[in-house]
Design a protein that fits this description.
By secondary structure, the chain is an all-alpha fold. The protein contains six helices and two strands. It has a single domain, classed as Cytochrome c/b562 (Four Helix Bundle (Hemerythrin (Met), subunit A)), CATH 1.20.120. Strand 1 and strand 2 form a beta hairpin.
Length: about 180
């Protein structure tokens, strides 16, 4: 799939490089700040409409949780690159990723929280293609559970496959449902 990290079958540095490219791509997606107030050339919220403060707070909470996931991915990446993180750090990070993935529900993505509301980067396609969004969220939850289980082994090799699955699940969702970065 275009834009998705590919699983590397190589080992050693080449495998770690592929993993880190996936993690770095996810980190960039998670850390960027969206700004346009239009989707597909049409205003999402008319100028005369007041933006509901409760929706702006929910969007802020959603972004905070997804940034927590991005930070956890970076910890796992440091472990894979042998840059100071240990397997206990990976276990804690895997749990954060699993917990955030579990929150990707209609409660965190209610209609009315698309681009144009607060700083949302959520494209209207989420609600138009809700079944696809749910499938991708399920794929993320499955990959996050595998990562959590792999972290208990203490092996960098055991963590490598599941972290790539998590990164691919994040990227697949962002590809369709998150505003493209400028």
């Amino acid at each position: 799939m275009a834009g998705s990290p590919r699983r590397s079958r190589s080992s050693g540095r080449a495998g770690a490089a592929a993993t880190m490219a996936a993690v770095a791509g996810l980190a960039l997606l998670a850390a960027s700040a969206p700004s346009p107030l239009r989707a597909e050339g049409k205003p999402v919220v008319a100028a005369s409409e007041a933006v509901r403060p409760d929706l702006v707070r929910l969007i802020s909470r959603r972004q905070t949780e997804l940034r927590r996931m991005g930070a956890a991915m970076r910890v796992v990446g440091r472990f894979l690159k042998a840059e100071g993180a240990n397997i206990a750090d990976v276990g804690a990070s895997a749990e954060v990723i699993r917990a955030v993935a579990a929150e990707l529900t209609p409660d965190l993505f209610p209609e009315g929280t698309a681009i144009g509301v607060g700083l949302s980067a959520a494209r209207p396609e989420i609600w138009r293609d809700w079944d696809i969004f749910k499938e991708r969220a399920t794929a993320l939850r499955t990959a996050a559970a595998r990562l959590t289980a792999a972290a208990t082994t203490g092996s960098a090799e055991a963590v490598r496959g599941p972290i790539l699955e998590v990164a691919q699940a994040c990227g697949a969702c962002h590809e369709l449902f998150r505003r493209k970065l400028p």
